[in-house]
Every structure is written in structure tokens, then in C-alpha cells.
Write a structure and sequence with these properties.
The protein has 421 residues and is an alpha/beta fold. It is built from 14 helices and 22 strands. It has helices at residues 34-43, 51-55, 74-87, 108-116, 152-155, 188-195, 222-232, 258-273, 297-308, 333-337, 341-350, 354-368, 379-384, 393-403; strands at 2-7, 10-15, 20-23, 61-66, 95-100, 124-127, 136-143, 146-151, 159-165, 167-169, 173-175, 199-201, 207-209, 238-244, 250-256, 274-275, 281-287, 311-320, 370-374, 388-389, 408-412, 418-419. The two termini are 29 Å apart.
């Protein structure tokens, strides 16, 4: 069997003939027409008024959309939503599109315009900056002594609408939904405090990963539970929750109150993107999903995390990711200098850094498995992180064929899937 692996904007063919291939693939259909799917969702929400009905009489509107690390067909979706607002009488010069960056770096004006596509004259576009204290306003407390601040213009909007893709998240349970509000529009301090809940004091001293912070877990997951409490302090008037198809396009959408649309999307994601685990694999092939999801270590790690859940201890994984954007955040750089689990855990105990935890999760995997990496990452850095750099996928497949003819290989290339509980 010959499989093609997305790598950045290209696709690489890998010849796995002579090996037994077991695909690990979502049951989702391919993407459809995002304009039609989203239009149907906002015109016929799960409950409550349609978007057009909600928008009548509102003096202003804010549409919250994902940043460039999430693959959403915004140039085809936003015209539908903006059209409904225009028809309901919301002025273009009182309409704002806000990119929910959380702690991710922004793209700048030109990059943001490319992300969302052409906007009608008068519609404003901004990228949320979690460190811009002047743009934040308190909306309540996440926990005693920890206020939650959100972007002022979203809080004060006459109509607030969120649009985001719901998918598994490696420690927050699921992405999208409430995450469009918190952490998407929140202050840097609050985001770090929330994400720090992924680690807790271990009985023997030091820090250990909280057992509830896993993909697909919402109950008993302190990160996910606080995210939902935070979003409830300024919930959107309408939440549009999207689910991707096996090809990355929009396959399904629901709109309505946040809790209801998010719950419906979570159920759809579970149905399409969770598969029976079966016996763990000794050999696997996985791709990080292509651009934009494989541009940085921070984003590509999510696919690596998914694949590792099907891999036997000591197993071997061929992992393909472009990684042309390097680590993905300056905050990760100090942890890359000495990326041993002990050193990272000691640093995190002194002061929480979100992407230090990402680095820890990454090197835990390269310590547990042999991860042969084909990417644009500097070989010296790849080796320091525990990867085994390879020039191309063919050299790994050829060696498997020669050393283990007929061996079973798990292949995850058409969207990350997770073991069904």
C-alpha cells in the first residue's frame, strides 16, 4: 500500500507494500460547502432565535474567529455571517471581527486580512493580544483571588458571536466552543493560571501531570472545567461550533447557546474521531496534518500525542511535519536549551510557563518511543529533543520492509483520531 503524507503544503508518497497496513482514520465524511453548512446552522439553531433574529435592534456586533493555528474556512464562512448581520440592520462600521489568539502570536495586519478574507467596507478586524492590559476588562472571578479579564470590545458588544472548530485537545479535553472566549480573548495571566492546572503536586514531592487533563475528558478535567466557567462569565449570544471532515474541510455545524452547541459538536467529534484502540502497534506512521497544523512544534505535537496513544511502549513511529516555523513561541526557547524531563519539571515548579509543559509532554514521548522525524527542524535541535531525524520517509519504510517483512503498521494520516473509551 502506498500512502501520501501531508507535509506543509506538499504531500509525500510512502511505499508500505510488503507491510500490513492498518489505517487509523476518522469515519467523518469529506468537507462540504462551508457557506451552506454554516448558513443552515445559524438560520436553524438548536434552540433560540436565528442569527438574523438575534441581530435585529443590536447596535453593534463582534464576531470571534480562530487564529491561524486552526484550519477554518473563514473566507467562505464570514460572508454568510456578515450578510445576516447586514440584513438585520447592524451597521458595517459597528461590526468587528476579532481573532481569538489566546497566547499565540498574531499575524500582523496583512496576515490577519489573509486569514479572514476580504471584509465589507467598514468592518473592522483586530487580533486579540493577551498582554495588552488596556484592552482587557474584568468580568468576574475564575476562582477566589483570580479575576478573569476579557477583551473589552467583546464584553461590551451588542451582539457577540463565536465561530470555532471543536476537536480533541491534548489536555483541555476539546478545543473550540468555550475556548473561543477563554482563553481566546483573555488576559495572559489568567490563561497561564488556567493551563497550570494541568500539573499538580505529586505525593512524593515535585510536580506531576493531572490525570484528568486528557483529550476527550471534560468532567474531572480542571482545565476544561475552569474554561467553561470562564466562558460563562461572558457567553456568546450565539455559538457556532464546526466539526471538520476527514479532509480538513467543514463537514458539520451547529449554532445556538454555547453549552448546547458545544455539547452537540463534542458528540459529533466523538462519533467521527474516536476509534477502537485494539492491540498497540510496534510500528506506526503519522503526519501532523499539513499546513498550518504542522508549522511549529507546539501545533505538530498534538498529532504526535494522538498517534502515541496507539503505540506500544518502545515502539517506533515515523512522524512527518514541516516544522518550518520552529518551536512556535519564544516562551518555549528556554526549555529547549536543556529539554530533559527533570530539568523542565524543575523549571515549571519555579514558575509556570505554558509551552514549557508542551516541551515536557514532547520529550516524554521521545523518551518512551523511537520517533523518527522527517521535517525542516534543525537536526541538532531535533536530536536534543530526542527525535531521530531522517532524510525522508522512504528510508524508514525500506528498513522496516527489510528487517520486519509483513509487520503490521498503524497509519494515521487523514486526521488525528483517539482511542474510544
Amino acid at each position: 500500500m502506498i500512502v501520501t503524507l501531508p507535509c506543509g503544503t506538499e504531500r509525500l508518497a510512502v511505499d508500505l507494500r510488503g507491510l500490513r497496513v492498518r489505517p487509523l482514520a476518522p469515519s467523518a465524511p469529506g468537507g462540504g460547502d462551508p457557506a451552506r453548512i454554516v448558513g443552515d446552522a445559524v438560520d436553524r439553531p438548536l434552540s433560540g432565535p436565528s442569527l438574523a433574529e438575534l441581530a435585529r435592534g443590536r447596535g453593534s456586533a463582534v464576531l470571534v474567529v480562530p487564529d491561524a493555528t486552526r484550519r477554518v474556512e473563514l473566507p467562505r464562512i464570514l460572508p454568510v455571517l456578515l450578510g445576516r448581520l447586514r440584513e438585520a440592520g447592524v451597521p458595517a462600521d459597528r461590526t468587528l471581527v476579532a481573532v481569538a489568539c489566546g497566547t499565540h502570536p498574531g499575524l500582523g495586519a496583512a496576515g490577519a486580512r489573509e486569514l479572514v478574507g476580504e471584509l465589507p467596507a467598514g468592518v473592522e478586524l483586530i487580533e486579540h493580544d493577551s498582554r495588552d492590559e488596556a484592552s482587557l476588562i474584568a468580568v468576574g472571578e475564575l476562582r477566589p483571588g483570580l479575576p478573569l479579564r476579557l477583551h473589552r470590545r467583546a464584553v461590551e458588544a451588542g451582539l457577540l458571536v463565536t465561530v470555532g472548530t471543536v476537536r480533541h485537545h491534548y489536555f483541555a479535553g476539546f478545543g473550540g466552543g468555550p475556548k473561543m472566549i477563554f482563553p481566546g480573548l483573555a488576559g495572559h495571566t489568567e490563561i497561564q493560571a488556567n493551563h497550570a492546572l494541568v500539573m499538580s503536586a505529586s505525593p512524593g514531592g515535585g510536580m506531576a501531570r493531572h490525570p484528568g487533563c486528557e483529550p476527550g475528558l471534560l468532567v474531572g478535567n480542571p482545565v476544561a472545567e475552569e474554561i467553561r466557567r470562564g466562558a460563562a462569565l461572558r457567553p456568546p449570544d450565539l455559538a457556532v461550533c464546526l466539526v471538520r471532515g476527514r479532509d480538513g474541510g467543514t463537514a458539520w455545524a451547529a449554532a445556538g447557546p454555547l453549552e448546547q452547541s458545544f455539547a452537540a459538536a463534542v458528540e459529533r467529534v466523538r462519533t467521527w474521531f474516536e476509534v477502537p484502540a485494539g492491540p498497540p502497534f510496534e510500528l506506526m506512521v503519522a503526519a501532523a496534518g499539513g499546513a498550518p497544523e504542522d508549522r511549529t512544534l507546539i501545533q505538530a505535537h498534538k498529532a504526535l500525542d494522538a498517534a502515541s496513544r496507539f503505540l506500544a511502549p518502545g515502539g517506533e513511529l515515523l512522524f512527518v511535519a514541516a516544522l518550518d516555523g520552529g518551536a512556535g513561541s519564544p516562551a518555549m526557547e528556554p526549555f529547549l536549551a536543556d529539554p530533559s524531563p527533570a530539568a523542565i519539571a524543575e523549571r515549571l515548579a519555579r514558575g509556570w510557563v505554558q509551552y514549557g509543559h508542551t516541551t515536557l509532554r514532547l520529550v516524554e514521548k521521545t523518551g518512551r518511543y523511537t520517533v523518527r522525524l522527517h521535517s525542516g527542524l534543525a537536526p541538532e535541535l531535533a536530536l536534543r529533543l530526542g527525535f531521530v531525524p531522517v532524510a525522508g520517509p522512504a528510508e524508514v519504510a525500506d528498513r522496516w520492509r527489510a528487517e520486519r517483512p509483513g509487520a503490521t503498521v498503524g497509519v494515521m494520516v487523514s486526521g488525528a483520531v483517539y482511542p474510544r473509551a
